[in-house]
Design brief:
The protein is an alpha/beta fold. The chain has helices at residues 20-37, 54-69, 81-90, and strands spanning 2-6, 9-13, 41-45, 73-77, 97-99.
Amino acid sequence: MKHEYQNGNLSISLDEELDMKSCKVLRTVIDGYIMKYQPKEFTVDLSKVEFMDSSGIGLLIGRYNLLKLIDSKMIIINPTSSIKRVLELSKIGNSITMRCE
């Protein structure tokens, strides 16, 4: 995972599977960045994520809910085709903006 904060935008690039094991650690780390920077916009790059189960969906929805509390916007960018399909089936796009760049 890489992160960058610039001009009110916190960007996270994930490069691992989003399963129960990894999401426990990622949740704590990402929440720490969100609380530290209080971003106006939070971008999650999923271009290198090849697998995501329900824990990954929970990770994204949980961060979305946290960001709503601080009046921040969340954007998912560049999901791989398999991840995009999981996100579409979960209807996560109804709440969180998805973009392919």
